């Protein structure tokens, strides 16, 4: 009699099903990873263009300022007009060394009004004619300063500016300054972690000039490394063969493709490079190291596969045991039935007894079959339950994956905010230095004004006592004609206004510097009112003409928290309030402490939020703003930070009336009591004629 093998009949299809599910999951995860990498590259490209444009504009402005300074110096004007080139070189070399140290300026020329070379300051022994640049032609045509990216026959790529030099209104020549592109590429790598490689077309270069330039640029690659182009500048620390492989891969495979070199994985993108005359001079290759991201994805896939195989093995062993027991019971019953048949065949002589025994055996067989049916049904239900458990586990994994994507988006947003903080700190430092000079000069000017007042008083007294009537009348007429008394009366007021203005700028710069300071997050005792005031100072320009801010500060204790994260909470809420107000409006900030909780309420009288949207506003990527205005991450980040500080945030809104966000933070047992505010509650602080209250 044939034996039944339930294990083979059930476990083989079940194993194939698990294999198909795991393969589908791995394939889907791979496609999602590729789409995320493409999005990541698009974001990095936009970041690169923004940083490169900002650095180029900064360098152009710095060179313009330097050229204006040089053109205004009388010693340079006299040396040029008298054709004393040695004296001009001596003066210019001193200035060039300072510019080279402070602004990394590498090129300094004097040209005549026709654009011909007068003096090459950085290399005076080189008397060869200077190249006619597109930016120089534009400056000669317009009579205005012109700047742009220029390429020389030797492969030198630099940002250059040509400044028309006029003496007493007559054009006497041009001042040319240049900064090589390599320092800018290094700054881009430091700011964005993006590597750049510049490849130039050979038809734009001269091979002899290129090879001669090795004396000054030893980092350049071989002329014959590539067929129709040559590698000029790069921030990558790779061999020339690897660099050639990267370029070939990018050109053949086009934008956003992958190349592997020495165990590293790079994502590539190449774009045409144009000079100031809008001529394509080569290719700019953007390279992002994706090795770490790839390793993380592989680790994730291996863990998922291992976990799935572990679960499958456990289910396989369990099903193998259950089905083996059922198979043995089924085969045992069949064997007993066979033995009964043989016994009945041997009992032909006792027919009646055999019939009775056969009926009895048939009854037993029916009972046993019913028992087998019940057992099979029971095992079938158990398998269905296991399948439901597997489906539940799959949904849990899918939810964890979506949560991971949301956290990655949050990290990207915080990385951008960190970059913006670095730029803001640099701007604050650059503004603070000239403001210091202005404040110092105002103090000296005020002292000089006092001495002038004393001198005019002494002069008037001496003229009155010792001068004749004609001299007295002439002095009085001169004072009236030149409005000396009016100037002496108005100058102290003007000095006071200037000092107030520089003080306001200094306060704004200090607030910007404190707000943008990047530190390792520290859990320290923090003044929440100071955090609000710093944030208001940062967004002062957003409030200047249309919004009035009223601060009602109560008595709050100092609290241990992460000050940078709390600043981000206030910034996101205040920016949302500003964007909710179309025309003139009011933002109210109320703080108080009650029942061992700190309350901070930020209210605006904007358009409000519909009731059906309020419950979704803290979800990642959900926004009520227009496309391009909001990312959907601001309130999600606010909710996460407040929750991390063991607090909560409530929202109340009515369409057409306004919205109120209320932060509720518990007291900290280490907190110290705070001194009450000096201004009365409900009174606007630091009112200005424009209606801005800070």
Short description:
The protein is an alpha+beta fold and 694 residues long.
Q: Can you walk me through this structure?
A:
The chain is of the alpha+beta class. Among the domains are: 57-180, PAS domain (Beta-Lactamase, 2-Layer Sandwich), CATH 3.30.450; 348-518; 520-666, Heat Shock Protein 90. The chain has 16 helices and 17 strands. It has helices at residues 6-72, 74-81, 85-103, 134-142, 181-192, 207-212, 240-253, 291-345, 351-466, 469-481, 484-516, 528-538, 540-543, 563-580, 611-614, 634-644, and strands at 107-111, 117-120, 146-151, 157-167, 170-180, 195-201, 229-234, 257-261, 264-274, 280-289, 523-526, 547-553, 559-562, 585-594, 597-604, 648-654, 658-666. A five-stranded antiparallel sheet has the order 2-1-5-4-3, with helices on both faces. Strands 7-6-10-9-8 form a five-stranded antiparallel sheet, with helices on both faces. Strands 12-14-15-17-16 form a five-stranded mixed sheet, with helices on one face. β8 and β9 (264-274) form a beta hairpin. α8 packs antiparallel against α9 (351-466) and α9 (351-466) packs antiparallel against α11 (484-516).
What are the SSEs and their pairings?
Layout: H1 6-72, H2 74-81, H3 85-103, E1 107-111, E2 117-120, H4 134-142, E3 146-151, E4 157-167, E5 170-180, H5 181-192, E6 195-201, H6 207-212, E7 229-234, H7 240-253, E8 257-261, E9 264-274, E10 280-289, H8 291-345, H9 351-466, H10 469-481, H11 484-516, E11 523-526, H12 528-538, H13 540-543, E12 547-553, E13 559-562, H14 563-580, E14 585-594, E15 597-604, H15 611-614, H16 634-644, E16 648-654, E17 658-666
Parallel strand pairs: 12-14
Antiparallel strand pairs: 1-2, 1-5, 3-4, 4-5, 6-7, 6-10, 8-9, 9-10, 11-13, 14-15, 15-17, 16-17
Helix pairs in contact: 1-3, 1-5, 1-8, 2-3, 8-9, 9-11, 11-12, 12-14, 14-16
Main location: membrane
Coiled coil: 334-407
Keywords: Cell membrane, Coiled coil, Membrane, Transmembrane, Transmembrane helix
